[in-house]
Design goal:
binds fe (iii) ion; binds N-(iminomethyl)-L-glutamic acid; 16 strands; alpha/beta; eight-stranded mixed sheet
Length: 414
């Protein structure tokens, strides 16, 4: 079965080497004007100008007319907390009235509020809310989603969250990649024995989760209000020895909270990094750790210090942008809005932002050879936008644009 996408005004292929883009490569989108794309059995068979591909379109191919619009790879959202019950709209209101995110957490709200709501939800209830969140992401062009546990913090609920992630992935249409985040915060049962909670994660939960093949990554929140560098080390070292790759919530509120550890352990990513120092950035570069920047959480928390994205590009780090979609610090499902923030507040060009949210993000999930760019052999995951120029993605801020979204060559009807 062949599908021919024709009349593509601007095709953003992001073709390039089989590794994440760095430095000036982030701006090289490998555009093709007046383009077409052939898809066979869900994979890209050819991209090129319409004139080049016309002789190769089989007579019975299904033809999709892009009407002169722009086609980009689907977004790869490499940092989300997709699975949770309830919401924290009350805390949104409290923060507007002056309370800080950390004060709310210290008073028993924050992550622990979502933990108690998630613990009370059945697997089917959680799957229903996860589908709703997933559809929000899909609607703005996201086709692959990294999803973390971390609102259970006990055996039954952490496993239930990971089961929901597995079910969401297997039912499609979005691809969903599971990350264990039991080290999100210390649950109330262990508040006076946090060492025991860390030991339980490292010695009991991680072996169980890896035996059941329920996670591909392990993450930990290294922060004054979550886990110390030493505690984070215990969790991540165990995860690594059980074959999980690592991601770290690091340097969100204070330098020295986890990024150097991410470098030391050879993590795939260090995420947040609002407060990271230049010295630590060098360590990340040498270790090949990819920074995942989450400007949506800076914006939603009303903070003003965005991570030093330009410096990261200059130093040769393989930058990634993600939503951090979660009920507390980033109730933002729209990757185009994250691109707008990255351009306006971090000085990225629209091209750099697009590369950071597609091909570079795919490499952090070990999927860089199958998704993230539109090249022959790759999965046909793409968005067909309502406009002609990729720069309009970031430019129409928080627009209600609805791209046509395709996963493995199939259009997602929502
Ligand atoms: O990535 N920083 C820690 N975890 C999330 C927030 C989760 C929540 O508030 O529910 C984050 O920002
Ligand atoms: Fe997060």
């Amino acid at each position: 079965m062949t599908t021919a996408i024709v009349n593509i005004g601007q095709l953003v292929t992001l073709a390039g080497p089989p590794r994440p883009r760095i430095g000036p490569e982030l701006r090289d989108l490998r555009l093709i004007s007046d383009a077409a794309m052939l898809i066979e059995d869900g994979r890209i068979a050819a991209v090129g100008t319409y004139t080049e591909l016309l002789p190769h379109i089989p007579p019975h191919a299904m033809v999709v007319d892009a009407r002169g619009c722009c086609v980009t790879p689907g977004f790869v959202d490499a940092h989300t907390h997709l699975v949770f019950a309830g919401n924290r709209a009350n805390e949104f209101e409290q923060r507007i009235a002056g309370a800080t995110y950390q004060e709310i957490a210290a008073a028993g709200g924050g992550i622990l509020r979502t933990v108690s709501q998630t613990r009370s939800a059945s697997e089917d209830q959680l799957l229903a809310s996860t589908r709703r969140h997933r559809d929000w992401l899909l609607r703005s062009g996201t086709t692959t989603i990294e999803a973390k546990s971390g609102y259970g913090l006990d055996l039954a609920t952490e496993l239930r969250m990971l089961q929901v992630i597995a079910r969401a992935d297997s039912e499609g249409p979005a691809r969903v990649v599971p990350t264990l985040l039991a080290a999100h915060t210390v649950p109330p049962e262990y508040s006076s024995n946090r060492a025991e909670y860390v030991r339980w994660i490292a010695e009991e939960l991680i072996p169980l989760v890896t035996n059941a093949n329920l996670a591909r990554y392990c993450d930990a929140f290294c922060d004054d209000h979550a886990f110390t560098v030493d505690e984070t080390h215990i969790v991540l070292a165990s995860a690594r020895s059980h074959g999980l790759r690592l991601r770290v919530h690091a340097e969100q509120f204070r330098p020295g909270t986890g990024a150097a550890l991410a470098a030391e352990l050879g993590a795939a990513t260090a995420d947040h990094l609002e407060m990271v120092t230049e010295e630590t950035l060098h360590k990340l570069r040498v270790a090949g750790v990819q920074p995942v920047l989450l400007p949506g959480s800076v914006f939603s928390l009303g903070r003003t210090q965005y991570p030093p994205a330009r410096k990261m590009v200059d130093l040769g780090l393989a930058l990634v942008l993600a939503t951090d979609f979660n009920p507390g610090s980033s109730p933002i499902a729209s990757m185009p809005f994250v691109l707008s923030l990255a351009c306006l507040h971090m000085g990225l060009s629209p091209a750099e932002a697009l590369t950071a949210s597609t091909i570079n993000a795919a490499f952090t999930l070990d999927l860089g050879n199958s998704i993230g760019s539109l090249e022959p052999g790759k999965e046909a995951d793409f968005a067909m936008h309502e406009f002609e120029d990729y720069r309009e993605l970031a430019y129409y801020i928080a627009s209600p644009a609805r791209p046509r979204v395709f996963v493995a060559g199939n259009e997602i009807i929502q």
